Amino acid sequence: MRDRGLDCEDSRSDVRSTNDGRQSGFRHARPPLGGLRMADVADARAYPPDLLSLAADFTWRSGPDLRVEEASPLDVACDPSVIQLLRGARLDRLAQRTLYPAQGEALGALLGRIAPLRDIALSFVQRDGSVVNFTLTGSPVDDGGYVGVGKVWSGRPFDEQHRGELVELLERAEANRNREMRLREEADVLLASLRTLIRPAPLADKCSDLFNLFSRLLRFEQALVVRRRTRDELLSVVATDPALTGLKWPAGDVINAALMGEALVVQDLSALKEWRDLPEAIRGRFRNALVAPLTIGNEAAMLVALHGQPGFFEPYQLALMQRLSLIATQAFEVDEQKNVLINTAKLATLGELMTVIAHEISQPLSVIAMAVKNAKLAIEAMNERENTVGSAEQTIVVAKLDRIHDQALRAGEIVSAIRTLAHPDRRTLGLRPVAVTEIMDNIRNLTEGSLRNRGIQLICNAPPYCRALKANPVSLQQVFLNLVVNARDAIAEYSKRRGEATRGEIRIDVYDDGVSDRLVVEVQDSGGGIPPDVMNRIFDAFFTLKEVGHGSGLGLAICRTLMTDMGGSISAYNRDKGAVFRLEIPTYVEDPAG
Question: Compositional bias of type Basic and acidic residues: which residue ranges (predicted)?
């Protein structure tokens, strides 16, 4: 007897049926699943327990030819169309009929290897246009068939329902993996960069090592550091290619933005207004750039990474560029600290030298003043003996001697001021009432001829009534003279850059409101102004915007020292077409008790 869903070996055992439907005296080749209680299924040794532990809607089994011999629902809510589709169908044929080829390929590959099936999704279109979706899970049995369970899905096809989520998960996993690798590489580069910073080496070698390390992340072709050298001139001071070191860079919108602290990506250098003014070594080789602000001491500079392909750099790389800029800033800061120590030693040596020079000059000046005085006395004595008033020639000689005597005395006062600078405890000595108009007259007499020859006009304005200042006249005159000379040089350089004949004006304006305890003097020029990125450095010792060999960088530093010693202040800003230096000087108040 052959019962549905059972294969009996009649030659080996007899088949007997009992009243309760149980069968005895035979051995199962494949125990049936349909219609059995879970306890009965669990007793069947041919069914792996992991299949029975799955949440399932139906059971199925196939013969060696992969034809589904049995498909039975486990739940009354199971879609009958699934059972109808499976019964009598071959699994390999079902793989060819699936709605989505990927499903069929996955099932066919497993059937070809007689491999276990695990949640294989299948979708089929019915004759009425509806879609049947279910999954098959099964294990191979000894005779080559399968036994398993299945789950029915409702709504959209399984593949369509979960494909987006699966793709998103895969993409997220890939992105996380790439991000992890990138972060690990960045950490390695940053650690190596820190080792480079603490290693004693020249600044150029440190920067070269930093560039080589970050080239693994940024993939740039060349990198360089650009900093300001003169008022309108920027130079590449460090570069991966020695041919790019020392190149002059023009000022422009992009460079000015970087110098003011903005990081940016230049997708195409040829789109810049200053493209034509860029060095040929840049225009001919590079089109794409990453630019990040850099600080060298208190001076704004910029770090530039270059590539020959337009649009090569992506905006996200700016963060890496800024990290490189921060590390490079630390390298330059260490180098600047060394320079500060060197400059401090220079100032100490200069102070000692000033003291020696002041001492050596004071003696010849005293001799000159004494000789002039003796000459005047001799002329007067000669006129008394001859009982004459003196000829016109003698009058001219006496006037010249008076002028020599006055200048010798003035030189002596300058020497005294130098001594005061060398000895801080004497800086406040010599403060007395000073008329600012007198100082301006002296400055006009000293500089007007030189300014006129260069096409520069000096204009001095002061109110009719102006209170006296409490200052050292020699120090105050030195401050005014330094500012006028600097203004003259700035106008000359500005005219030269524009290819014009030197012309301009210097204004000294005095403001006295008659109420406050300070008087304001502004010295303004038409020399193009001070670059904003170096405005906070112009009073530093040894800092200059003049060309190499044309300035010591001490003039404005001395002016600030002299103004501070007199209880005043000095500041700078730009106005119109030039720079303005604002002096605030205490006014003289007479002591009633005195």
Answer: 1-19
Enter the tokens of residue 248.
Answer: 């002059």
For residue 219, is pLDDT > 80? yes
- E-strand ranges in 169-298 read 222-230, 233-239, 248-249, 264-266, 288-296
Q: How far apart are CA 338 and CA 378, in angstroms?
A: 60
What is the pLDDT, as a whole number, of residue 522?
A: 93
- The fold for domain 201-337 equals Beta-Lactamase (3.30.450)
Percent of the chain with pLDDT over 70: 74
The domain spans of the chain are 58-156, 158-198+341-424, 201-337, 432-586
Cα 566 from chain centroid (whole Å): 41
Give the per-residue pLDDT at 153.
77
DSSP 104-159: HHHHHHHHHTTPPEEEEEEEEE-TTS-EEEEEEEEEE-TTS-EEEEEEEE-SS-HH
Query: Residue range 93-102: average pLDDT?
Result: 85
161 pLDDT above the threshold of 90: no
Convert the pLDDT of each residue in 74-85 to its tens digit: 877 788 888 989
The torsion angles phi and psi of 478, rounded to 5 degrees, stand at -65, -40
User: 352: exposed, middle or buried (C-beta count within 10 Å: 0-12, 13-18, 19+)?
Assistant: exposed
Assign 507 to helix, strand or coil. strand
Domains 201-337 and 432-586 share a fold: no
> Quick one: 529 exposed, middle or buried, by C-beta within 10 A (0-12, 13-18, 19+)?
buried
Radius of gyration of the chain (CA): 48
Six-digit token string for 537: 């450095």
- Closest CA relative to residue 7, chosen from 145, 171, 203, 138: 145
Amino acid type, 487:
A
What per-residue confidence (pLDDT) applies to 146? 92
Collapse the DSSP code of 47 into the 3-class scheme (helix H, G, I; strand E, B; otherwise coil) and give the result.
coil
Domain 432-586, architecture per CATH: 2-Layer Sandwich (3.30)
Residue 50: count of CB within 10 angstroms of its CB: 11
SS3 per residue for 546-593: CCCCCCCCCHHHHHHHHHHHCCCEEEEEEECCEEEEEEEEEECCCCCC
The residue-averaged pLDDT of 467-480 equals 86
How long, in residues, is the chain?
594
CB 487 within 8 A of CB 546: no
Two tokens, residue 368: 């000159």
Distance, CA of 591 to CA of 435 (rounded, Å): 18
Give the model's pLDDT for residue 524: 92
CATH of the domain spanning 58-156, picked from 3.40.50.1820, 3.30.70.330, 3.30.450.20, 1.10.10.10: 3.30.450.20
396: left (phi over 0), alpha (psi -120 to 50) or beta: alpha
Place of tokens 């970050």: 214
Looking at residue 12, what is its pLDDT?
34
Beta-carbon count within 10 A of 472 CB: 24
If you ran DSSP here, which 8-state letter would residue 275 be given? G
Q: Average pLDDT for residues 64-73, to the nearest whole number?
A: 90
- Inter-residue contact 265 to 313 (CB < 8 Å): yes
pLDDT tens-place string over residues 437-463: 888 888 887 787 788 888 888 888 888
Give CA–CA dist 31/402, Å, rounded.
136
Higher pLDDT, 274 or 550: 274
Q: Take residue 143 and report the two structure tokens written for it.
A: 């005779």
